[in-house]
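Record format v2
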Amino acid sequence: MMIDIKNEDDQEKMRIAGKLASQVLDMISNYVAPGITTGELDRICHDYIVNEQNAIPANLNYKGFPATICTSVNHVVCHGIPGNKKLKHGDIINIDVTVIKNEFHGDTSRMYQVGKPTTQGERISKITYESLWHGIKAVKPGNHLGDIGYAIQNHAEKHGYAIVKEYCGHGIGKIYHDHPQILHYGTPGHGIEIKEGMTFTIEPMVNAGGASVRVLPDQWTVVTRDHSLSAQWEHTILVTKSGYEVLTLAPSENTY
Ligand code: MF3
Ligand code: CO
Ligand code: CO
């Protein structure tokens, strides 16, 4: 299997795309509140990407997906379709966005608490975020993809949560979902060796209850089978000589 290695020029374009994707999530955070619909959030993101960033919303029409962002609320694991659903106090929502700029993709998602947060909502969001960062810290030339998966799985399971196995991170560049697959579980030292210049996403989905999921009849929305809460965070990562660069880092994350 061929894994694309980005040269300096590609890396600079990936930085730009990553930053734009992250800025969409910064911007939309000001609108996430009780009463707004996921469809309204989608329209705001769409217009921002197209009119302010002069970029392309990669999700729109991707394999027939009808929107710019995925909005996954509470027991929705991923790929929630924006619509008439109004957010309410205590909901948790993942917003996942991908932009294309100069042909390159930047892909990132975050969790948001709607209104007054619940203890359970805060907890699953925090542990999932920490799991993502445990995975990121395993990114380094010479390490293996299994090191990333193991670090993520270990942290989530230690806190009584379950990793969703059906969906994974992915290589990214001019191709949205490229090789290799980045599993969010694994065995240290196993899998493909990590090399400088690779770019991929890490995007763990973590359930409060069982790991099983199902896809709704709309053929997109993935939910937990037991309707337990689910959370996800995603970053696009560049492998550097000594470790990693997070291309979709938020301003508030610089000191993590
Ligand atoms: N952004 C998602 C990912 O992290 C994929 C969304 S595909 C869509 O890979 F079609 F649902 F938008
Ligand atoms: Co992704
Ligand atoms: Co994404």
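The chain has a mean pLDDT of 98.
Residues 80 and 89 are 19 Å apart (CA to CA).
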